[in-house]
Predict the structure.
Amino acid sequence: MTSLVGEPLRLRCIEAVVEEGERFGVLVQEVEAGLTAAHLDTPVPWVPAWTVRDLVGHLGAVHRWATAIVQAGTTEPPPPPPRPPDDGLLDWYAAGLTDLVHALRGTPGDSPCWHMSPAAPKAAASWARRQAHELAVHRMDLEVAAGVPVTAVEAELAEDGVDEVLRVVVPRWAHTEPLRTATASVAVRSTDTGRAWLVRLTDGAVEVRDGDAATGATGAPADARLEAPAGALLRRLWGRPAEVAVTGDPAAESLLRGR
């Protein structure tokens, strides 16, 4: 399978923001109407500190934050996200999604933008990508909370989500413990798309290269190997339950996972 890059990837990610965002909104509507096993104050099993209300509020705030960043046309840090309202949460969420899609579609992919990761291109295309994967993961969070079947993320999009975690998100965490002082290498392979990565962590520095390599630059075996279909890898790397195969040192593999 050929990975999307450049403008085709940006456009596919914007499509995913629309698809995942609308799917999330419909499910929130069903929750509010009492059509699922959940209500707004139901805990989210995959994010125990949150209720459904918190999850919807988080996404609605992030959408407005991302919209402001994309429309600012600058690499200067933005103000913090807004607080969600006490009432009218679904309408507020829907309005934020509409504004986000409008901003992503109307802003050239190479327009200057701030980004929280030092490894991300400082361009609007990075936010189309970030919001697509943010929505996909949180849509699955909501489905689990609502007690409905979890809809799989399309393999090509999930593969790109894995690539974003490894190349963009892990470097964002690199200044924190335990990554700041860790030295390890982890081979990651998507069994359904064939994409593979080798991640090397060295005292806060993150190096990622393509290829189904199980060894580091010195020829030594990777400390751990993580294999699964792309959708399962995406869930695992974001700290959600997933069926994956881990060999080698579990502590090394855990360095790549969301906290």
Notes: The chain has a mean pLDDT of 94.
